[in-house]
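Lab meeting notes turned into a lecture example. A postdoc, R.K., suggested we walk through two folding results consecutively so the class can see how the record format repeats. The first protein's sequence and structure tokens come next.
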Amino acid sequence: MRFLLQNPTFAMACEQFDQAADLLELPQNLRERTKWPKRLVAVAVPVRMDSGEVVVFNGYRVQHHLSLGPTKGGIRYAPSVDMGEVSALAMWMSWKCALMQLPYGGAKGGVACDPEKLSRRECEALTRRYTQELISFIGSRSDIPAPDLGTNEQVMAWMMDTYSTHAGYAVPEIVTGKPVRIGGSLGRREATGRGVAFLVNQAAALCKLSSPLRVIVQGFGNVGCHAALELARTGATIVGVSDRTGAVHRAEGIDVVKLQQHVSVHGGVRGFPGAEPIDEREILLQPCEVLIPAAVERVITKEIAGKLRCHILAEGANGPTTPEADRVLAERPEIFVLPDILCNAGGVVVSYFEWVQDLQSFFWSEREVYDALYRILAQALSAILKRARKQNLSLRMAALMIGIERVAEAKKMRGLFP
């Protein structure tokens, strides 16, 4: 198994785990069972393209552990997807779910492709064939997919329909993050970004930062966009935004609604007339109260960490900060780090709510969804702060230790099947 997982992101996830396991003094046999993924699936996904050519894409699904319940995690469409990356994301999802006290293990999946180059028909064909290949491995009591980078509500609707067609009846609880009309939850689309915004405001109060907060968002996809919109609504000034097309900056503030409209028409922030273009690397180093990396892994490197000019680093993405950068940040107590397994947990929490609503065929109001989400996030933040202060830990290590400890305790209680 291990030779399949040679990937810098997976190595980073393992390094974090090993540090936390050492502090927890996990016995070696329990450590090994807690660390390594339970199941890795690789599938070939042949698709007939619009040109008539048949292209075979590589698809993956990793289930990290099932000790607390079914596995839960997103489906990613991106050129970088491989078994190692997916395994790292599944591992982080395990700790995230345990930290939030959700009855899930972590999972992640994806297909190595560029969704920007697929037509709608090609994307649907890819999704349906990928789902069909995973029929034996996913299920509403075993593994529940959700959207991630490069996927959305429509992809989840295709997945649900494919699975339901195979079952012979509608199975809305097989995926989360799907359209509300077919069993999705109110608030799910915005949940991760709004969770980031909620925690930023909590951290700003703890740090006694004055308003308005100046905010820079790196990544303007679903998470970054909704985090920016919610922070602007609550009084913050968005001074910088970047995405894969470029970066823009305006010290007086960017109209996020107009920027969102520009992106929907032009496909990215590049060329937005309401701000000045800036280098995509330099945007991370501009002065601000809050920096939100909300794109991909490993963007906050050792070099960048030493030059950051923010007071709060809110990790909207999974694994945006390398272990080397963490060591630099440990020497910079003026920066309050909201670690990824806390900061971006809003999506999986509301996915859990969606799953519960589907199982019960009883749906909640948006107010009920967000009241419950914010309560869970606040409780998790409080637990992390308490652990960090008690043991003199970074917030990341405190969060990891809580999540890993809960998973390890569940495995110990259940025992080892002969």
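The second example is placed directly after the first for contrast:
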Amino acid sequence: MSIATATRRIGRQRRLVTGLVITVVITVIAIIGPWLAPYGENEIVGKPFTMEGSWLGTDYLGQDVWSRVLAGGGSILVISVLATVLGMVLGIIIGVVAAYSGGWLDEAIMRLNDVALAFPQILLALLVLTAVDQPAAWMIVLLVGFSHAPRVARVARGMALGIVSRDFVHSAEALGESRLRVIVAEVLPNMNAPLLAEAGLRLTYSIGMVAGIGFLGFAANPGAADWGQMINENRLALLVLPWGVLAPVIVIGIFTVGTNLMADGIAQLARRGE
């Protein structure tokens, strides 16, 4: 398939294109936002909860809300992407190995996976985070990524079960190919589109979970601007000056809508076999 043909087919998927545009715009804002902000993220520009500073007013300390919104997306973006990648890699390995192995090993892996699925994601993260004085960014990445792995594993196993029994897999085995090569060269390439859709969905959940962790007071850097943490910091003055809460909520909402639309668009492409 040529690049031009692939581009035309993707262009016909309005959800995918719309989601991609939204996600790219928010990502660019999160990356270059600190350089566009009129004030520093911790700079006091006026009295708390007044319309001083720029057009969104000030927060609970008198810091400019707009500047903190522009500076607060980088941490959520990086942690969410890394956690999604980690969860996808672990889940795919677990699911494909279980499906390809079969028998008692498949049964043992999936029953352990069911036990992991029984724990609510956010509750498990909070249980660990409350045991440390100050959570580091890598710790949040691990917690969110590990919480995604069982769900990805179940999806990956379901897809792999329909592939490992096909003739081209048996042919590769008959030619003496190693199990690892069969998985990498024969099984995984036939799972690309559904796994991309699942990755978009996992990214959506990662964004919500990382923001939720920040809202509950477990941000990696309490002094830095963070969209989730901003909601918690300014919620008591929601009726006085709501922008300290509404601005990060709106940005997070738009970001999750964009990633959801991307996931839906990729899933539609996969169903149509394009």
